[in-house]
Amino acid sequence: MLYHTIENQSTSKKEKPVVTIVGILGKQGYSVAHTLLESGAYHIRGITRRVDVPEAVKLTDQGVELIGLPLIPGYKKEFTEALRGTDSLFLMTPNIAPPATYEFDLGKELADAAVEAGVQQIIFSSLENVDKLTNGKLFAPHFTDKARVEAYIRTLPVRSSFIYMAFFFTNLMEFYTPQLIGDTLVFPIYLPKDFAAPFVDPLTATGPAVLEMLSNPDQYDGKSLPVIGDIISPQEMVDTFTKVTGIKAEYSSAYERHEMLRHFPEFASNEILVREILGMAEFAVEYGYFSKDRDLEWSRRIDPGTLNWEGFLRKTNWKGQKLVY
């Protein structure tokens, strides 16, 4: 069943292109919504299961139309109805914790619904196909299933573009939070100490990338482009944290299995999750997080204000505490 919020806007949505955001209350979706609101160029519709939470109410107060639907397979009819009248779709599949494996099924169903509803453009948040690139050696379905959805979308009669998000800065706030040991904040990070990896703030970087693709649909048709805020090693992240906050900090490896479980013993109850985290990290180190032909400068060219790690720390004033988004 669909639940619609009441529109609160003075300009009719028919006067502006309609952009629907799947998962509008997630980090990427929320970023896209705020960037499009600031542009004033689009009527925004969002699909989320949480239409009554404060963040949703704020969006409806700004004129966003929300539709309440669960983001799980089995709702193609409802997805199609929700997408009717949409010109462009920002599509992402939500975080699906292992052992659940329906990410591809959900992405395919949403893409099929978009085509059936007459959507003209899909922008999908994808990632590299780890299974294909490593010949099955590494296990990272969070990456591979997104790549499979991308490959499927490319077969459909619709204009499509793809963003590839780097590791999130916010991972260290939510999932791999530093631990205070004595007078030192210890950062357990899932990458080797001196390995420079791509990171980004999804809350501020996603929106400008998607707006660029929406504004230039022909230029970006068929393109897959990374969204990056910084390429930085864990040791550099820790050193920068101390420089910005004045808090004594040090790196501790969570790259190997025994190190990961020593820092996060609660992960031991979910073997598939552990395999995925380790596979994702090893893929980044051994194969490169992004394929060699990706344009690693694109997102910072089109959005010169993209936050690097230092800028992110200064903007958020984060001091190492656990946060949940």
From TrEMBL:
Residues 16-312 form the NmrA-like domain. It comes from the Bacteria. Signal peptide: none annotated. Keywords: NADP. Belongs to the NmrA-type oxidoreductase family. This is NmrA-like family protein. It comes from Pedobacter suwonensis. The lineage of its organism: Bacteria, Pseudomonadati, Bacteroidota, Sphingobacteriia, Sphingobacteriales.
